[in-house]
Amino acid sequence: MTDIAIVYHSGYGHTQRVAQAVAEGAKAAVIAIDADGNLPEGGWETLAQAKLIVFGAPTYMGAPSWQFKKFADASSKVWFVQGWKDKLFAGFTNSATMNGDKFATIAYFWQLAMQHGGLWVGLGIVPSNKKESTRDSLNYVGGFGGLMTTSPSDASPAEIPAGDLQTARAFGERLQGALKLLA
After folding, report:
1. Residue 151 and residue 172: Cα distance in Å, rounded?
2. Which domain of life is it from (predicted)?
3. Where are the beta strands (DSSP E) in 41-176?
4. One CATH from 3.90.79.10, 3.40.50.360, 1.10.540.10, 3.30.1360.120 for 4-181
5. Whole-number Å distance between alpha carbons of 54 and 116
6. Is residue 34 within 8 Å of residue 80, measured between CB atoms?
7. Could you tell me if 27 and 4 are in contact, meaning their C-beta atoms sit under 8 angstroms apart?
8. How buried is residue 142: exposed, middle or buried, by Cβ count under 10 Å (0-12/13-18/19+)?
């Protein structure tokens, strides 16, 4: 059993890389939603056992990918029996532009968590917003409600800025700490 489960969709590998960085910091299980919007065998069971569920998806056209939305709609079976009630939730997203309406995706994740009767954990990292800040600074994108990362459309997953990956690992560590508050 894992205390933290990350369920995510990645269209081109960028969101997968971010999921892996969050998982490193959180010591979490990772569940990839496939190209058809389905979970792997045992995915629903892993989510049922987790104390904290992390949602992740790229932001496409101002919202999570359709594959993630298919998963979200399928979670209505869990909702019906209140299977995730009182669990902790968090979320992350990646898009090609600095803003890219990423917060709309975070808000979608938050709303999904609220539908399930969950409790939300935000990023908890002050943004790097001074003149000396660079793309390699923690929380350069400036998210609060969840982790937001940026990778240009012509960048490979290996080219995600180091600061975004460090922020993802720090977010994972925060999620581990949030579990301690439940004890």
Report:
1. 19
2. Bacteria
3. 52-60, 63-64, 88-95, 119-120, 147-150
4. 3.40.50.360
5. 13
6. no
7. yes
8. middle
Write out the two tokens for 160.
């995600």
Tokens of 86: 């009182």
Tens digit of each residue's pLDDT (9 = 90 or more) over 23-73:
999 999 999 999 999 999 999 999 999 999 999 999 999 999 999 999 999
CA 99 and chain centroid, separation:
16
CA torsion, ordered 173, 138, 121, 74, to nearest 10 deg:
-90
Using an 8 Å Cβ cutoff, are 134 and 140 in contact?
yes
Structure tokens given for 136: 């390699």
